[in-house]
Amino acid sequence: MSILDILRKKRDGGQLTSDEIAFVVKGATDGTIPDYQLSAFLMAACTRGFSLDETIALTKHMAFSGSTLKVTLSPESGRKVRVDKHSTGGVGDKVTMILAPILACFPSIAIAKLSGRSLGYTGGTIDKLESIPGFRTDLSKQEIENMVNRLGLSVSAATADLAPADHILYKLRDVTGTVESQHLICASVLSKKIAASADVILLDVKYGAGAFMKDYESARGLGLLMTQVGKALGVRICIVLSDMNEPLGNCVGNALEIQECIEALRDEGPSDLSFICVELAALMLVEAGVYLSIEEARKEVQLAITSGRALAKFKDWVRAQGGDLESFAAQSSKVAHTVVAKTHGWVAAIDADRVSRLVFALGSGRSQLSSSINPTVGVRLLKKHGSQVKDGEAIAVIRASSFQDAEKAERELLQAYRLVEHPDQVPPRQLIREVFSSNGTVRPRL
To answer: To the nearest 10°, the Cα dihedral for 209, 84, 268, 122?
Structure first.
C-alpha cells in the first residue's frame, strides 16, 4: 500500500477503504508517514469530504492507535455502567465538576473521566480542579480504578498514549486550515472517548458566540454525524445541542467556577447552570438504563442535590484526589473590583466571547502549554439575561491581580453587556435546543 496512491485517490474524490485509512493512521502513529503527507491527506479529506463509512473507519482506527483505558468494575462495588461526558467547550462551562458527583450518587454508575487543560479562551477542567490546593490530576490507571470502585468517579488528565494518532493529526489540523471539517472533528472527539472505553457517552455540542460551532445548524449536523458513527461502532451516544451565546452560570475563572460548583451542589447555583446539570445528568441516567423516563430521572437527580448526597460525594471525591477545600476557601485574588452600570435597561445579551477574552487577559488561561495561570482571577456576573439593571447598580465583580488589570477588564465587560429599554425586547433564550440519542430524539424540558 502506498501513501501516494491514497493521496491521489482522495484528491480525485475517491472513497478510501478501511484498510487504507488504517494505513494512514498507523503511519501517523509510528512516524513512517511524514507531516507533509499527513497534511496533504487532511486537506484532501477536508476539501473532498469524507463519507460516513470513511468517518467510521477513521474514528475506529484512531481510537485503537494506542493504549485504552477500561476500568475494571468489581462485583462488590455494584458499579455496572461506565459513563462519560464531553463538551465541545464554552465560557463558564463547569458542568463536569457538578455532573460527576451527581452521577456517582447512583449505585450502578461509574464515571472515569479524562479531561484537558485550557489552551485558548475557554477554560480547561483540569486547570479548574487544580485551583483546589493539593488536587491531583496525574492518576495512574490503578488509582483511577480504585477510586471508581470505591466512590464511583474520578477525573484526571488525559495521557498522550490514549488515541495518539489523534494528538498528531489534531496538531496538523490546527496549522493547516483543516480544523473545521465536521468529519475530522467527529473522529477526533469520538476516538478519544471510545479509547476511554465508556459504555454510554454524552456529548454536549455547544453553539454560539462562546463556542467553536457558531450556529445551530452546524452544531446539529455534527451531532447527527456523531450519533451515526457511535451507533456503527457499538457505543451509545447522546448528543445535546446547547446554547453558548452567553457564559454558563455567573462565574468565569478557575477558582471562581469551582466555588460556583459548590454553590450549585448546595442547590444555590444560578438557574441556567443548575438547569443544564440536571438535564444532562437525567439524560445520562436514561441512556444508561437506570430510569425509563426523563421525568423520573430528573426527579431523582434533583433529590440527590437537595438531600446533600451530591455535595457530600463531591467533598469525598476532592479529598480522595488530594484536594484541600479549607485551603481553597481561604485563597483569594489581590483585587476585588465592583463594576457598576453606566445606564439603565434590561440585559438582552452578554457576549460570551468577549467575557472569555477579558478573563484570559487577567491571567486565567495560557497561550502556550508551558504558560502558568492565576487560578484566583476571573469575573462573577451579578446581572444575567433578562435582569433589570439600574444606572449605578453593581453588575459584576472582577477578581484581578492589580487595579490596572481590573480597570482594563471593566471596559471590556461593559462592552460585553447589551441592554435594551424594555423587557419585551429581551430575546428568549433556549438553553437546550435538541437532543439526539441512539434511542431516537429525546425532548428535554425547555
So the answer is: -30
Walk me through the domains of the chain, giving residue ranges and CATH numbers. 3-49 (1.20.970.10), 75-170+193-326+432-440 (3.40.1030.10), 334-422 (3.90.1170.30)
Across the 446 residues of the chain, what is the mean pLDDT of every consecutive 10-residue run? 95 96 96 96 94 96 90 90 88 94 96 76 81 93 92 88 87 81 90 87 90 87 91 90 94 95 97 96 93 94 98 97 94 92 95 92 75 89 96 96 95 96 93 82 54
Catalytic residues: 86, 166, 173, 188, 192
What pTM was estimated for this model as a whole? 0.89
